[in-house]
Amino acid sequence: MALSKTERRQRIRNRIRKVVSGTAQRPRLSVFRSNKEIYAQLVDDVAGVTIAAASSRDKDIAAKGTKSEIAAAVGKAIAEKALKAGIDTISFDRGGYLYHGRVKSLAESAREAGLKF
């Protein structure tokens, strides 16, 4: 029997998380994408702490435009918060999603705003 969409994503996510982990110097940029919103957070896996977070539900992010444009705004916001916290290098965790569409626009705007990964 075939896997459901969520089971398939969970398998891919587990495979990614075996390799990608975050430290205090190089945190993990974790992405979660729902049908309506997109969330990003910087995680230090050693200490088990979220360093910074941004989402499309934040007040300072304009919810106007397409979903990809909103994701780009979230990427820019998380990059600004990371740079303010003194972090410029991260490891990217796409969370089992394809590097395409909203996930790609979030990553590219975070790179343009100054993050290195």
From TrEMBL:
Record bears the keyword rRNA-binding: yes
GO CC aspect terms: ribosome
Keywords: Ribonucleoprotein, Ribosomal protein, RNA-binding, rRNA-binding
Signal sequence range: none
Pfam families recorded: Ribosomal_L18p
InterPro entries named in the record: Ribosomal_L18, Ribosomal_uL18_bac-type, Ribosomal_uL18_bac/plant/anim
This protein's record includes keyword Ligase: no
Origin superkingdom: Bacteria
Family membership noted in the UniProt record: Belongs to the universal ribosomal protein uL18 family.
Function: This is one of the proteins that bind and probably mediate the attachment of the 5S RNA into the large ribosomal subunit, where it forms part of the central protuberance.
Stored PANTHER family: 39S RIBOSOMAL PROTEIN L18, MITOCHONDRIAL, LARGE RIBOSOMAL SUBUNIT PROTEIN UL18M
Subunit composition and interactions: Part of the 50S ribosomal subunit; part of the 5S rRNA/L5/L18/L25 subcomplex. Contacts the 5S and 23S rRNAs.
Protein name (database record): Large ribosomal subunit protein uL18
Organism in which the protein naturally occurs: Sungkyunkwania multivorans
Lineage: Bacteria, Pseudomonadati, Bacteroidota, Flavobacteriia, Flavobacteriales
Gene coding for it: rplR
